[in-house]
Amino acid sequence: MQEAPAATRPFTVPPFAQACLEAASDAWGASFQHPFVRALAEGTLDAERFRFYQMQDARYLEAFADACSLIATRCVRPDDKLWFIDAARLALVVERELHAGYGKKLGYTLEDVARIELTPNNRAYQDHMIATAVRGTLVEAVAAITPCPWLYVELGQHLARELGTIPDTHPYADWLRMYSNPEFNTYMDNLLERLERFAREADDAARARAKEAFRTSVRYEWMFWQQAWEQQRWPV
Ligand SMILES: Cc1ncc(CO)c(N)n1
């Protein structure tokens, strides 16, 4: 399975994050190979699938922001609360920025996004993050939201390396540029430092559950590409 070698990561991966990644390595590598991701990078992805993805993703990011907000209430240190409040805010702001652009190009509005039905995979991923934020220990809650930014940042940087420069004519240039933006490296340092600290404060059982929650989210990340690729519908 293809995975960006650790040496090329421009942010620090502390031991617990490394253990999470190793526990999820097959599912992690699979996202890099998904036909949706390959077509997105090559610029051959059809607009209908991308539109489907973007609309589902806007709703996903609302749940990600909710999970971060819930995590903020569970942190003890004000600095940690602030960081997760900022992460929630960033998810909502980023969503609006990308959507202002792609909504205009692909012909959908924020009202359209609010009206779509969530796919089974999207709903399941959202419910996993929210349930873990509410019922899990703090390290578990953070582990469940970590693959979301981490996988996209690695994917963005990996694709940017592969493509060299991203030409303005690339249909998904904005998407590729956003996730390969080096500003995310600081974000990752901050997130993984917190994951590490919360892991150190937890017991073995909580750490094991956190690794499992991380792995589940990595699997759902692959399933998120898949639901967009097949334009998933409820079977009944
Ligand atoms: C499903 C999903 N995972 C991760 C990200 C990165 O923010 C995103 N936008 N959507």
Automatic annotation (TrEMBL):
InterPro entries in the record: Haem_Oase-like_multi-hlx (IPR016084), Thiaminase-2/PQQC (IPR004305), Thiaminase_II (IPR027574), Thiamine_Salvage_TenA (IPR050967)
Keywords assigned: Hydrolase, Thiamine biosynthesis
A molecular function GO annotation: thiaminase activity
A GO CC term assigned to this protein in UniProt: cytosol
Gene3D superfamilies: Heme oxygenase-like
Catalytic reaction equation(s): 4-amino-5-aminomethyl-2-methylpyrimidine + H2O = 4-amino-5-hydroxymethyl-2-methylpyrimidine + NH4(+); thiamine + H2O = 5-(2-hydroxyethyl)-4-methylthiazole + 4-amino-5-hydroxymethyl-2-methylpyrimidine + H(+)
Residue span, Thiaminase-2/PQQC domain: 24-230
Annotated EC: 3.5.99.2
Superkingdom of the organism of origin: Bacteria
Gene Ontology terms: biological process: thiamine biosynthetic process; thiamine diphosphate biosynthetic process
Pathway assigned in UniProt: Cofactor biosynthesis; thiamine diphosphate biosynthesis
Family: Belongs to the TenA family.
Its job: Catalyzes an amino-pyrimidine hydrolysis reaction at the C5' of the pyrimidine moiety of thiamine compounds, a reaction that is part of a thiamine salvage pathway.
Protein's UniProt name: Aminopyrimidine aminohydrolase
Species of provenance: Rhodothermus marinus (strain ATCC 43812 / DSM 4252 / R-10) (Rhodothermus obamensis)
Organismal lineage: Bacteria, Pseudomonadati, Rhodothermota, Rhodothermia, Rhodothermales
